Amino acid sequence: MNTVAFIGLGHMGQPMALNLVKAGVTVKVFDLVPEAMAELTEQGALMATSACGAAAGADVVVSMLPAGRHVRGLYLGQEGQPGLLDVVAKETLLIDCSTIDAKSASEVAKVAASKGIEFVDAPVSGGTGGAVAGTLTFICGGTDKGFEQAKATLSIMGSHIFHAGGAGAGQIAKICNNMLLSVLMIGTSESLQLGIDHGLDPSVLSEIMKVSSGGNWTLEKYNPCPDVMPNVPSSHDYQGGFMVDLMIKDLGLSQEAALSSNSSTPMGALARSLYVNHGRKGHGQLDFSSIFEEFNKKG
Amino acid sequence: MNTVAFIGLGHMGQPMALNLVKAGVTVKVFDLVPEAMAELTEQGALMATSACGAAAGADVVVSMLPAGRHVRGLYLGQEGQPGLLDVVAKETLLIDCSTIDAKSASEVAKVAASKGIEFVDAPVSGGTGGAVAGTLTFICGGTDKGFEQAKATLSIMGSHIFHAGGAGAGQIAKICNNMLLSVLMIGTSESLQLGIDHGLDPSVLSEIMKVSSGGNWTLEKYNPCPDVMPNVPSSHDYQGGFMVDLMIKDLGLSQEAALSSNSSTPMGALARSLYVNHGRKGHGQLDFSSIFEEFNKKG
Amino acid sequence: MNTVAFIGLGHMGQPMALNLVKAGVTVKVFDLVPEAMAELTEQGALMATSACGAAAGADVVVSMLPAGRHVRGLYLGQEGQPGLLDVVAKETLLIDCSTIDAKSASEVAKVAASKGIEFVDAPVSGGTGGAVAGTLTFICGGTDKGFEQAKATLSIMGSHIFHAGGAGAGQIAKICNNMLLSVLMIGTSESLQLGIDHGLDPSVLSEIMKVSSGGNWTLEKYNPCPDVMPNVPSSHDYQGGFMVDLMIKDLGLSQEAALSSNSSTPMGALARSLYVNHGRKGHGQLDFSSIFEEFNKKG
Amino acid sequence: MNTVAFIGLGHMGQPMALNLVKAGVTVKVFDLVPEAMAELTEQGALMATSACGAAAGADVVVSMLPAGRHVRGLYLGQEGQPGLLDVVAKETLLIDCSTIDAKSASEVAKVAASKGIEFVDAPVSGGTGGAVAGTLTFICGGTDKGFEQAKATLSIMGSHIFHAGGAGAGQIAKICNNMLLSVLMIGTSESLQLGIDHGLDPSVLSEIMKVSSGGNWTLEKYNPCPDVMPNVPSSHDYQGGFMVDLMIKDLGLSQEAALSSNSSTPMGALARSLYVNHGRKGHGQLDFSSIFEEFNKKG
């Protein structure tokens, strides 16, 4: 049976690690905030006093951190401190589930490869709900071997596991998807409001577009217009779900990627500006479908 | 058994009328271009010498014309000539399948209503392929009574028949859908190219996004990247399908609608400008998924 | 000495007509709202009881109306009533100072030309301030002869008089200018805020860009950032000036024009959507430089 | 009399250094490409064999390099090699004229400040023409003392020298300006083409907008429509001037800055995407006013 070191126990990391514990995996946890480890140790996880301590002897390391600089710090070391890549055994499988810039992911993967260590970037989607339920989607970048090895651990925490390509490909695929999602959300919002402004019932219009060529995920699962679907954020004052601030973060990552590859993303770039305007007005904590409110005022 | 007058036998009207003939309906046809009627009369349709002549005594009138001015001319009359609304019996059901501006549709509907005649605006989607196969989608505006009556005739020519709302609602719903479609197409194109620019395989990326929150009709049915799907225009030099020039027409209608209702459509308006740029460079006859080519150059 | 008929005495028309009166011109006024004529008759204008009555015997007709349908109604007639073109003498010079769609302007001009009457479209810029001060800018469309004749009257009400081209060209040139103005305003706003977000003093940044390649009218005369310039709307809670709702009207006219000529205006179309969002939130009566407030929130 | 070390002798650096030589300044030059130093030494400059060698004993160091990583490498050192900040005397004035990301500029400035050395970021505008003529514009960031000291040297190479604020402010002000410039250029292009599409003469329309509220630098100095102005790139097949690829670089820097400060720049972001599309089609070496060609096709 494997031992997993889990580094980073925030809103996502905590329930993810808990699912490993519940599945009978030996889990050693570490977080800079000791309180974050309390519930997990109550449930049977072992508490480490440092990231390196958690990783020592583990078969698999899973990390879930906020940004590229944290991931680089963890694996490559920082301020004179060694990183995991300096201390773990060659057989250790490293899985980073953070959503970070592709450049950082590739940089860590490159160093890992130079040491013969498998490193898989495996950003998730599905939110805290999916993390709790163990139904997350993982989009992985790495070698075929690394991906196959990672599946065993990831399948305990999620229900969809994709292999997007080589090192960094998981990050790229995720931000491509989330950039497209933001475009779907805004395009759907303005289309629905255009219909409403002409007297159409948004439920009827949604139903028509959903099964026509305008069909997309937001109409299927996440209608931004209040009271069209019962159990979505738009019908509950845009509470819960995927926050505007997180969408802005992901759109920033997609723009960074577009800058580095000299890519043109007119829709994605516009979506970012509209979301930033929305967030800066104080709506950063609302669900991202609240962008609908930028369109539905009566004036 | 009903008699149907069919006015306007272009690329769409001809196969639509033919399906009525084949179903055993008595069809009286009229088009300004006599040749357009030849094939239909060979198949058993009756040829009229004027629109009013075709409509005289018909139970149902179906029209399929290029633009609002033609529809207004047909039903309201022009240059001193009477329109159909001046001559048909009160019981005649009028169905206009043209894609036109909502204002013209509402104007004709209003005059019809003042005379107690049912008028249904029923723009189609599905292209010439759907017209031939009898699998078109009709998006209808009109009274409940008019809609119910229209179903019998429309179901011979199509497989999906929606009731979007009152007079003009069919046109609005259609252009909302097509505006959204253009946004899906461009958003998907730039997301795929961003992935490609970072070394991802577009087939793999498409597969991932299709079942994730970026999922949309273009990924399901109409991938814009060549050789990802076999039987779509992008894999055949963007031949066939739904022409750029027709998308520009529909985006123009959606912008007209947005102007009249003081609606904001940043994504739809941007899509129109990008499609116009594309069309003006000489790509107006290509399928609308060819917008992908604006992004995939290497520079 | 000429007699001028002045039709339409709103916020702009009233002070414009007054300047003619003060200059000693014999002015016959008409407005559907009798009160609008009171101040002018006190100052010496003659009151007419209809537009045709005002125009009868006048050498010059000046009209200042809200929209294309009013202008078409006035000159071409409506609901069975004759229009000015049915009643005025062939020598009468017609000058329409309204800002309307180019199509209406061309339509009226065409009928006028068919009767041998000179018609000049002469939309203004400069606001009520310029109307009172007699410093308006007139951008004219019409024949060389019509333009030369119109100058005498227009120069009493304004200080800049341009000849943009043939019939309708005045309207087109004005909306091209105002579309560009909206782009300058938003581009300047976001550039200033980007600097502010990085700690720059907006006054210093404005000063630098004004004399560099970012230089434009808004930096010269109308800085959107509060307290950079003393006597502009941004330094007075965005009161006065050119209202957001009027900018939205002009951007609508420019988009109508772009639709009719199959032109691509990505920046102008985006500007319209941003202004509509802004206006619908309740800011329609603020000066158009208040678009800056869409960017300057702290979040 | 001062001694100036000049590091980086590309298309801009070479003529800038030459102006110093011609003004009688003792100039020590260094470039990784020896040939780049040949002309300067012929004119009297002293050739150094390394950047540190050039800087040793110099009163002022001027650097002109392609990107942030080169500037960081030069001043902070790289791959175990010392940087200028490790070797120069405390009294040396450092002036970096490169256009780079604000973050790199601030990083170098911070290290310099910690050692008590004045560092001024002083990106230029004016192109190679301005470099040769000695009429460049310098936009500086740094302390008041550093700025005052830098003026003596900069005024030999340029005619406008601005102080935008503290460390990094020169870079920010420059990219704000250039982002705004790109918006002016595209907004002007689409406005001119809208007029042309309606039959207006672009020269007449330009003249009107130039003195109206659409007035901006591109209409004054750099009209994008061929044959409106004689001595600009648009009238010479878009040769010379400021290349599309360089505008894309600057727009990338402005978007990086917007990402780091969570700023919304809808116009600037759209401009970048349009320029990238244009550049990737093979127009990267044309002058940036060639964006007009994206709009002026007839279709």
Automatic annotation (TrEMBL), chains A, B, C, D:
Pathway: Amino-acid degradation; L-valine degradation. Residues 3-165 form the 6-phosphogluconate dehydrogenase NADP-binding domain. Its EC number is 1.1.1.31. It comes from the Bacteria. It catalyses: 3-hydroxy-2-methylpropanoate + NAD(+) = 2-methyl-3-oxopropanoate + NADH + H(+). InterPro entries: 3-OH-isobutyrate_DH-rel_CS, 6-PGluconate_DH-like_C_sf, 6PGD_dom2, 6PGDH_NADP-bd, HIBADH, HIBADH-like_NADP-bd, HIBADH-related, NAD(P)-bd_dom_sf. Belongs to the HIBADH-related family. PANTHER family: 3-HYDROXYISOBUTYRATE DEHYDROGENASE, MITOCHONDRIAL, 3-HYDROXYISOBUTYRATE DEHYDROGENASE-RELATED. One of its GO terms (molecular function) is 3-hydroxyisobutyrate dehydrogenase activity. Pfam families: NAD_binding_11 (PF14833), NAD_binding_2 (PF03446). The lineage of its organism: Bacteria, Pseudomonadati, Pseudomonadota, Gammaproteobacteria, Alteromonadales. Gene3D superfamilies: N-(1-d-carboxylethyl)-l-norvaline Dehydrogenase, domain 2, NAD(P)-binding Rossmann-like Domain. Keywords: Branched-chain amino acid catabolism, NAD, Oxidoreductase. The keyword Oxidoreductase applies. NCBIfam families: HIBADH. This is 3-hydroxyisobutyrate dehydrogenase. Residues 168-292 form the 3-hydroxyisobutyrate dehydrogenase-like NAD-binding domain. The gene is mmsB.
